[in-house]
């Protein structure tokens, strides 16, 4: 009989493999920081101050969620929200476009509105 605990090494998974992968739809230097626009997180009425995500709050990944060595953000890049950059989860409500919006505070972005049900939904889809 095999001991399941010793039969195979634990898989080496990066933390980002379990995180929801988003895509950079636009990239601008606004309010003194580089920010990304993600249409998946703000499907209507985008505003850089209200909805922009600072590049410092994301990790660039490939389409499968594997962390990239090159962390230079470009339009079209894939990214995940770095869980360590989430400062707080505010209240949510239905608003623009009939979407549900959540007031999330990220370390560099500050307080922004994203169309997610919760921080768990933001991180894991």
TrEMBL record:
Residues 20-123 form the Lytic exoenzyme target recognition domain. InterPro entries: Lytic_exo_TRD_sf (IPR038263), ZoocinA_TRD (IPR031898). It comes from the Bacteria. This is Lytic exoenzyme target recognition domain-containing protein. It comes from Streptococcus anginosus.
